[in-house]
UniProtKB/TrEMBL annotation:
The lineage of its organism: Eukaryota, Sar, Stramenopiles, Oomycota, Peronosporomycetes. The chain crosses the membrane at residues 60-80, 100-121, 128-147, 183-205, 225-246, 252-269. This is Major facilitator superfamily associated domain-containing protein. It is a multi-pass membrane protein. It comes from Peronospora effusa. Signal peptide: none annotated. InterPro entries: BT1 (IPR039309), MFS_trans_sf (IPR036259).
Length: 274
């Protein structure tokens, strides 16, 4: 049998060695020896992103547009579908469900952008496709005439159907409710489009966040979600103050029409794409 020297024996795991290794790990020596070579503990090369750079500002504008549409579209179902068109409760509930349904498919959108690159890019083409879909739906809704409201005289809304006189029935636009279905579908496709753009933007944010050192990691996420939340509030305020006329079930003497509101969104979205 050969004679083994101390230098010939490969280090083996034992209770004592495990104890020593755990002590080294707890003391921080183990991490210092095996940590990522990238400065500051960043997970990706490229240096920390500058929020004032062109790329980051473009990303912030993306989330501003997403927040604005996210704040406006769901807020129109009650004043426009329910009050203006007098859509049924089922149609209004369906509209609210379909507007938020695309958010449930974010993982599939992410798989699509990760696994099916277009023209060598995984994010930009899908982001552009999402905005084109959303913008197209907004333009269609802006160009479609909304027609007369169900109650051409707002005071008739407070009268029970059993108390309708022939005069009241003559001035009620019973055909208005039949227009609700097409608006529900257009809103759904618009939501699917901007959620696709949102998923691609989220993927870019993850890549940016991985470039951040440990001390400032999360700065990019905080910035983009702050911008999105602010513009959600702006969208809801826009709908609350400018879409609250008597025809839409509100008390104001002035109001934007639904096509005008869609034009505002389309113009702002077009500026965002530029």
């Amino acid at each position: 049998m050969g004679i083994f020297h101390k230098g010939d024996i490969i280090g083996r795991s034992s209770l004592s060695s495990d104890t020593l290794q755990s002590k080294d790990f707890e003391s921080g020596n183990h991490f210092k020896e095996h940590k990522s070579p990238i400065h500051g503990g960043a997970l990706r090369e490229g240096g920390p992103p500058n929020l004032l750079s062109k790329d980051c500002l473009g990303l912030l504008v993306q989330y501003a547009a997403i927040g604005l549409i996210y704040g406006v579209l769901p807020a129109t179902t009650y004043p426009f579908l329910q009050n203006y068109l007098n859509a049924s409760g089922t149609q209004v509930t369906t509209a609210n469900t379909l507007l938020f349904l695309p958010w449930s498919f974010k993982c599939f959108y992410g798989i699509l952008s990760d696994c099916v690159p277009l023209w060598g890019y995984r994010r930009r083409p899908w982001m552009v496709i999402g905005w084109i879909i959303c913008l197209s739906m907004l333009i269609i809704m802006a160009c479609m005439p909304a027609g007369d409201p169900y109650y051409t005289v707002s005071a008739d809304r407070d009268i029970k159907p059993a108390d309708y006189t022939p005069e009241i029935k003559a001035r009620i636009n019973f055909k208005a409710a039949s227009q609700a279905a097409k608006y529900v579908m257009l809103m759904c496709f618009a939501a699917a489009g901007y959620v696709l753009a949102d998923v691609c933007a989220d993927s870019i944010v993850v890549e940016f966040a991985q470039r951040e050192p440990l001390e400032s990691r999360g700065k990019t996420q905080s910035a983009i979600y702050t911008v999105r939340t602010v513009f959600v509030i702006i969208g809801q305020l826009l709908t609350g103050f400018c879409f609250n006329g008597e025809k839409y079930g509100g008390d104001f003497d002035f109001s934007l029409t639904f096509p005008q509101l869609m034009i505002i969104l389309a113009v702002l979205l077009r500026r965002n794409r530029m």
